[in-house]
Amino acid sequence: MRIRAAGFPSRKTLDDFVFDHQPSLKRDQIIHLGGGLFLEQARNIVLLGPPGTGKTHLAIGLGIKAADAGHRVLFGTAVEWVARLQYAHERGRLAEEIVRLRRYGLLIVDEVGYIPFEQDAANLFFQLVSSRYEHASLILTSNLPFARWGDVFGDQVAAAAMIDRIVHHADVITLRGASYRLKDSGITTLPSARPENTTE
Question: Would the pTM count as exceeding 0.85?
């Protein structure tokens, strides 16, 4: 029931993940995170890398592990989370929604950076991040390095404050290489798969 309620777009487990396609990824680290200690410590996980490198798969796999362990989990893209917060804000229920979401042990925010936010939307997202700081965990995936998050949120200062709260207690994992989805297509490089795609 917890897995169904989480809203995962598909069911992907850590056992299904092809670690051979990500040789730089430490399998032991992912298995350790799958044990769920990060949830007890209200730590975050940030998965950075080009499209197709397994960020969403890992996020879902860790989310399913968390649900199996008894934690309440919610999954959504960054755009979906912002839409949810905007809906609550327009009805004067933002504070109530933020408090309600804090009852979830894990929120998964997929695809940070794919679509830039307006200033108001960025402020709403900042409130969500701040409300969970040292209280409950987030897993975030992004195709952009932190240095470019200011472009996404339209405010370098707000982005810096957000990143500061996210990474203060976090495991930041960078995935590299070509898209697994394109492994048999002959295409080896995508526009976002640039050397700058690092955690700096």
Answer: yes
